[in-house]
Amino acid sequence: MKTESLTTQSRKVVSNQAAEHDNLTEIVSKHLATDFQRPIAQHNIEAYQYAISQINKPHIIFDSGCGNGKSTLNLAARYPEAFIIGIDKSHHRLTKLANKSDAANNYCLVRADLIDFWRLAANDNIKLLHHFILYPNPWPKKHHLKRRWHGSPVFKQILALGGMIELRSNWQMYLEEFSIALSLVNCSATVQALTLAKKDYISDFEAKYHSSEQTLWQLNANLDIDSD
Q1: How many domains does the chain have?
Q2: What pLDDT does residue 203 have?
Q3: CATH code for the domain in which residue 66 is found
Q4: Which residue range(s) make up the domain with 187?
Q5: CA separation, residue 50 to residues 82, 86, 111, 201, 207 (Å)
């Protein structure tokens, strides 16, 4: 999802899906029962190995789909006891942020595909303190369910990484579906409206969506306690 200027007005999510997808439980259950066999690209292996080599704190936080990396820097300041790995597939987005040198040394930014990165981390039994997935592409068309993270073959790897997971979105249905997917592994989640002061913004998306007078939503769950 493209990060734009804070003054840019953002359109609201428009979907032909009025409630949770009819096939949600079927799709998630199928993915939970099978292993994703797609080969992992070499450049994603190298990005993962680099990121792991940089860890200098006892705890790990993923900022998945970090865009320009501003959210990663903000998380690094908020969690000084953890190492923050910001992951995004776009070289263009990752090179947009100018002032990366002002942050602490407890973070890195890597260009990688999340599907491969999560699989590599899960295979290495990486356990996260916190996992942030901020404003993922909502893929709001009904036939796009399998492109949403909870409808993806790597939902099982998201669960395996554990920790406190937090998603934010401007489309409530995305988070409601994610919550239903979590319930299939006996994991409870809370979904609520998100109200933030400007000083508490994690990413540029909060400012952009607030300027467009859109309601923001937040999902929180503790994967370590609730899921198998």
Answers
A1: 1
A2: 92
A3: 3.40.50.150
A4: 37-226
A5: 17, 12, 11, 28, 32
